[in-house]
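Late entry, written up from scratch paper. The run itself happened at the end of the previous shift, but nothing got recorded in the book at the time, so transcribing now.
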Amino acid sequence: MLYVVIAFLYLSLLFYLLFGGADFGAGIIELFAGGSQKERTRLLTYQAIGPIWEANHMWLIIAIVILFVGFPEIYTTVSLFLHIPLSLLLIGIIARGTAFIFRHYDAVKDHFQKVYNLIFVYSSFMTPFFLGILAGTVISGRIDTEAPDFLSAYILPWTGLFPLSIGIFTVIICGFLAAVYLIGEATTDEDRNLFRKKAFRMNILTVIMGAVVFLIGEFEGIQLFKQLSQHPVGFIALALATTSLPITWYLLKKQKVYWPRILVGFQITMILLTLFASQHPDFIILKGMTLTLEEMAAGEATIFSLGMALLIGSIFILPALFYLIYSFQKRPITVSKAKF
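Output as recorded:
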């Protein structure tokens, strides 16, 4: 049952990046759009994510609950030593959701719409950035549980080059996901071509930033190349993600809609599999020690109960979630065309 719980944990993180990441990426694309592109992106973003954007956070909630109940020492370590980036992540989620609602449902359309737009796009950038920082910090070995002062314990671990590079990499991935997904949501050839170009650019940035992450890791002694060589699953996953790139570019050039979506989901899955496999069996790498899910698991009775709850809950929740997505994709959505 322990490995059932671990599988749910990793799948929750994967689904949050795939679905929630695409939502964040829509705001990121809007942030860097200019002129008339910004308004068109804003309207299309609402059509695409308006009905279901809040449901995507269930994956993050599931991951947190699994850590809290099943792996309390890991949960405590992360929430204690990374409470600042965790708080900033949560602030970004709350600010983004609030701004999204107010800019579309506020009864009065006035200058505050500009404020809501700014909060939405910058929190869309901020949230995946700190999510990536958290991921980069827990695998970098920078957390010192014996740190003598506040700065060394709670600031320096997540402000190094490697965590920051992972944060930027996560932002770019989210932008890439959103650009590919929005191609299928666009209703005109002009918009489809616009998001197709953005997908190409974001994909190139993803490759470049991925290489930068590896170089910074080597510079800081994390030795990602060595870790991959010792874990063939991670190496194969990275190779598959890399070889699928030209196929994605070809399909985008041929103006395909749905196959690029599948491939980009596959690429993100392989990237996360690379990360998970290269770190296995470690989940958090601290200065002088590591924490593994197997060793830090709660008692057998707790893990069994948690696993059963996850299995039974998924039977009821997942079909309803997928039906929600399906039904709203089939329903036309009326969007206000008021200029913000």
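The CA atoms of residues 179 and 199 lie 5 Å apart.
(Scratch paper discarded after transcription.)
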